[in-house]
């Protein structure tokens, strides 16, 4: 890897294209390096993972809404949309939109956390949609996805967006555009223009993840993917982007991020170096914000080891979670959001409330993507009482480990202290989720397949489940005419009675 130095330049500097971050990203995307076997294996896993969470969300309102929008834009050759028949084709940017919402709705697919936060699996819907539309092969799709992951991971390692209340999808627009550029074999100049346009159109504030969290949380990455498809289309037609988009004196860094004096070192693969960023990422066993994954696992453990916590919750005086700065201030009590303790809050809000999540996982000894968020579950009197006893505090050591660049030390958990009314203190800690590569039960192909089967049950017919898994396993060998098989068709009758919202078209 080579560190690309990035800082703000006044217009009088006339910064050369070759010295701009967007150009360096484009050079990585245009490099025809082969994809390593273990990277290909993980790409297959994540294609399966995306389909899993999409299947579980097919009848949820935001997904129905986005799918209905895509259905208004039929196109040939076009792209497939999750839930619909594989021979139904739609304009690729709208297919990317609908599939992106389906993948993101349950907050249940992969993650990468460093200087910024991300869900790199969000790259797959737009890249796959363009691959289907453009008649590309499975091998070409694999190359495109490898680039999408690589660029997003590299940006996330170096540039914090959340510190300036900018939503993390500002790294997704450029990475998806770069991945599409690789997929299509575009030249450096075209990818450069597409990356700049994608970044320019996908910067937004983090209010979508603050306070009363709305359904836009699921739409935000889908919007970034849609913008990436459109940016590539414009760039292929010869249209240009604001330049330099990152380094300009009125650019993203100067006015949205760390300001005119900012400087970053972005790691990027050198020419001929494999794109292995996907191997730094990790998926979710549970449908909740990633920082909650380890806490669900620890709560399950405490549920089994200390029956008194479950049988006599009235004996619990307080629960204090010692954790990282991010967990405390974003999904913990440090956020200062009363909605995180509101039993009538939206699902999107509850899956960003570690006090709620830890309480329910401790009481139930399990976590379910639907049942754990049900209004009747959130409103249970004993749950509300215990929930309000939970507070988080920042612990400097867990913050240090959260930001560590050493994968053996990097952690997303912390220590919990449960004080009983008789003075007894129960304490335990966890560093990473059980499903993490360094966790108690790391996810491999077997676990990805099991997750798909679980979430697809009752949603897809058994023959469709087997068909999809068979096609996904052959991803690198798929012909262009087989790529439409990388979708899922709902069982007959699933959408009966599901209201389709009306809009402009």
From TrEMBL:
Residues 20-263 form the MmgE/PrpD N-terminal domain. The keyword DNA-binding does not apply. SUPFAM superfamilies: 2-methylcitrate dehydratase PrpD (SSF103378). It is an enzyme of class 4 (lyase). It catalyses: (2S,3S)-2-methylcitrate = 2-methyl-cis-aconitate + H2O. GO terms for molecular function: 2-methylcitrate dehydratase activity. The keyword Lyase applies. Pfam families: MmgE_PrpD_C, MmgE_PrpD_N. Keywords: Lyase. It comes from the Bacteria. Residues 286-474 form the MmgE/PrpD C-terminal domain. Its EC number is 4.2.1.79. PANTHER family: 2-METHYLCITRATE DEHYDRATASE, 2-METHYLCITRATE DEHYDRATASE-RELATED. Belongs to the PrpD family. Monomer. This is 2-methylcitrate dehydratase. It comes from Agreia pratensis.
């Amino acid at each position: 890897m080579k560190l690309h130095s990035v800082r703000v330049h006044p217009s009088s500097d006339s910064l050369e294209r070759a010295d701009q971050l967007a150009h360096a990203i484009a050079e990585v995307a245009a490099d025809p390096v082969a994809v390593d076997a273990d990277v290909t294996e993980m790409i297959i896993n994540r294609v399966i993972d995306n389909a899993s969470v999409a299947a579980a969300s097919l009848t949820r309102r935001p997904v129905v809404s986005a799918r209905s929008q895509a259905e208004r834009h039929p196109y040939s050759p076009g792209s497939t949309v999750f839930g619909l028949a594989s021979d139904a084709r739609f304009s690729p940017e709208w297919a990317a939109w609908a599939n992106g919402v389906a993948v993101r709705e349950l907050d249940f697919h992969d993650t990468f956390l460093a200087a910024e936060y991300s869900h790199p699996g969000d790259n797959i819907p737009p890249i796959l949609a363009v691959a289907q539309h453009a008649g590309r092969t499975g091998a070409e799709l694999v190359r495109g996805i490898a680039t999408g992951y690589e660029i997003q991971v590299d940006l996330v390692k170096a540039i914090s967006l959340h510190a300036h209340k900018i939503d993390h999808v500002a790294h997704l627009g450029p990475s998806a555009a770069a991945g599409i550029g690789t997929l299509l074999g575009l030249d450096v100049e075209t990818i450069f223009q597409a990356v700049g346009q994608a970044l320019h159109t996908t910067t937004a504030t983090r209010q979508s993840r603050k306070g009363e969290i709305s359904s836009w949380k699921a739409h935000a990455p889908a919007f970034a993917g849609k913008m990436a498809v459109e940016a590539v289309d414009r760039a292929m037609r010869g249209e240009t982007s604001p330049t330099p988009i990152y380094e300009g004196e009125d650019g993203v860094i100067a006015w949205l991020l760390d300001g005119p004096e900012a400087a970053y070192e972005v790691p990027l693969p050198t020419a001929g170096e494999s794109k292995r960023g996907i191997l730094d990422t990790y998926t979710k066993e549970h449908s909740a914000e990633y920082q909650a994954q380890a806490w669900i696992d620890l709560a399950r453990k405490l549920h089994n080891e200390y029956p008194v916590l479950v049988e006599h919750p009235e004996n619990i005086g307080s629960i204090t979670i010692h954790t990282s700065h991010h967990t405390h201030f974003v999904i913990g009590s440090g956020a200062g959001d009363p909605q995180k303790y509101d039993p009538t809050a939206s699902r999107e809000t509850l899956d960003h409330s570690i006090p709620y999540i830890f309480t329910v996982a401790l009481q139930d000894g399990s976590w379910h993507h639907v049942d754990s968020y049900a209004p009747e579950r959130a409103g249970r009197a004993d749950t509300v009482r215990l929930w309000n006893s939970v507070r988080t505090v920042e612990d400097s050591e867990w913050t240090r480990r959260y930001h560590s660049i050493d994968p053996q030390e990097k952690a997303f958990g912390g220590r919990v202290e449960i004080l009983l009314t008789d003075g007894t203190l129960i304490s335990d800690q966890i560093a990473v989720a059980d499903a993490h590569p360094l966790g108690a039960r790391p996810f491999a192909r077997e676990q990805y397949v099991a997750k798909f089967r679980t979430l697809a049950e009752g949603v897809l017919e058994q023959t469709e489940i087997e068909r999809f898994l068979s096609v996904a396993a052959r991803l690198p060998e798929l012909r262009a005419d087989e790529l439409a098989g990388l979708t899922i068709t709902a069982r007959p009758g699933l959408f009966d009675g599901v209201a389709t919202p009306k809009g402009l078209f």
